[in-house]
Amino acid sequence: MSGKSATAWSERLPAHQRVFANRNLRMSAIEAIGFDMDHTLALYRDKEFEGLCFDMAVDQLVARGYPEDVRSVRYDRDTVVRGLVVDKRLGNILKLDAYGYVARVRHGGRLLDREERRSAYRRGGIRLGADRYRVVDTLFDLPEGSLYTALVALKDERPELIKASYRTLFDDIRECIDTIHRNGSLKQRIMADLDRYFERDPDLALTLRLFRDVGKKLFVLTNSEPEYTGAVMSHVLDDENWSDLFDLVVCSASKPGFFLSQGRGKRLANPGVPGLPAVPGKVYTGGDAFFLESKLEALADAILYFGDHTYGDILRSKKSVGWRTAMIVPEVEREILALDKVRDAVEELEEIEDNLEDLHRERERLEDARQTEGRAIDGLDEYLRASLGRRSLLQGRIASVLNQAWGSLFREGRAASRFGGQIRDVACVYTSRVSHFVHYPVEKFFVSARERLPHE
User: Fold this and answer.
1) What is the DSSP-derived secondary structure letter of residue 451?
2) What mean pLDDT is predicted for residues 412-427?
3) Distance (Å) of CA 399 to CA 151, 174, 374, 403, 447
4) Nearest to residue 136, comparing CAs of 388, 417, 357, 396?
5) Residue-level pLDDT at 373
6) What does residue 241 show for φ and ψ, rounded to 5 degrees?
7) Sign of the torsion formed by the C-alpha atoms of 78, 418, 253 and 212
8) Phi first, then psi: what are they for 205, rounded to 5°?
9) CA neighbor of 295 nearest in space, from 229, 242, 226, 248
10) Which phi and psi (to 5°) does residue 116 adopt?
């Protein structure tokens, strides 16, 4: 296929269905492909699942002694996005750019203005390793962040109602979320009505079969328990004997610890668990990556792993054992579709911002020669004012289709956001769902864009 026809084919594929490459990935060199389950193979219905987590956490808070009035708060998904940072001391939610600069701050129901933000974070950045901060890294963290935002607002409005400090309030919410995951109550509610909490991807089974047809070994690697894994996988692949698609299933994996030396996994005894493969030696609990590699007879960069968690799935599998990584980022699809509505504004804004630096430099040159070029500088000032005004209008139009508090998930101004920088740094490729690979040749060579330094 010529370069011209390849480009034309790529352009015909809608952007929200594409796979994006940060580093070259030659699929023909991949021998085994692994998948996390939650939010990767199994796609949750966001509103229903996260709303359930939120409501169950509120119930737990009331059981711990919080007043019944906390039941008045409602889940709002727009109050928090991945990549944000909770400041437990001040009750704030922060958005950082990829360089650690605090760019936006929300306290309860309002965004802090520039002076308030600078007063709270005088150095501009923060030390994330401190106990004061908690990162909103996973899709499972969103209900927790939303509940904290709502209760901080309630605490500020009615301080006599919630007397706990901002730090204690967050720690209590965190413990309540942990409890519903740990005691099995959340999963029991989900397993009782799987269709309500999961969407079925019609192209998922086809994608997996295409991988198998060219000889790839497939495996599931999940922190979920065997019972939950069996129920969910049987549901999302209900038109398939899903166990025939996979060579190995590892449950209760305890990622990210799984990517350190922990020993052999424990084989699940027959007849096993409903919904899981009944083939002896196919299903295990625990173990580590080295045990998994020995079972699959594939090592390091011959393994590609799909996951949604930047640290637990992607970073650790890449850094600790050298696997190639494919990150599932559902937000990519939503943001691309939103920005498609204002694509002309995005392109015009980029052009204006690229020109502004040159305009400012020209103004400085004219300032030095004001006696001879005073009229020219007046004209340039007028042009600069018009450009800045136009930029402000375009920024407002673009912001209207994005999250009203946080803007783009992947950017902050002209820089990448903390979350966008993580994706760039840790994922070989990324896309919004596994099944988007169905649009590409199975042995495709994904090529990253050429990196350019500013002087280039």
Assistant:
1) P
2) 94
3) 26, 31, 37, 7, 31
4) 417
5) 53
6) -80, 85
7) positive
8) -60, -40
9) 248
10) -65, -40
What contacts 101, CB < 8 A, 6 or more positions away? 124, 125, 415
- Structure token digits, residue 97: 């750019």
Amino acid at 288: D
Query: Tokens 């169950």, residue?
Result: 56
Q: Which long-range contacts (CB under 8 A, 24 or more apart) does 413-418 make?
A: 413/97, 413/103, 414/353, 415/97, 415/98, 415/99, 415/101, 416/97, 416/98, 417/83, 417/95, 417/96, 417/97, 417/98, 417/103, 418/83, 418/85, 418/95, 418/96, 418/97, 418/98, 418/100
Helices (H) then strands (E): counts for the chain: 15, 20
Residues 148-161: what's their mean pLDDT?
97
CA 37: distance to chain centroid?
15
Question: If DSSP states are collapsed to H, E and C, what string results for 17-67?
Answer: HCCEECCCEEHHHCCEEEECCECCCEEECHHHHHHHHHHHHHHHHHHCCCC
| Digit-coded pLDDT (tens) for 24-78 | 999 999 999 999 999 999 999 999 999 999 999 999 999 999 999 999 999 999 9
What pLDDT digit, counting tens, does each position of 101-145 carry? 999 999 999 999 999 999 999 988 888 888 999 999 999 999 999
What is the percent of the chain where pLDDT is above 90? 78
- Tokens for 138? 């996973």
Six-digit token pair at 206? 């086809």
Residues 324-358 pLDDT 10s: 999 999 999 999 999 999 999 999 999 988 887 77
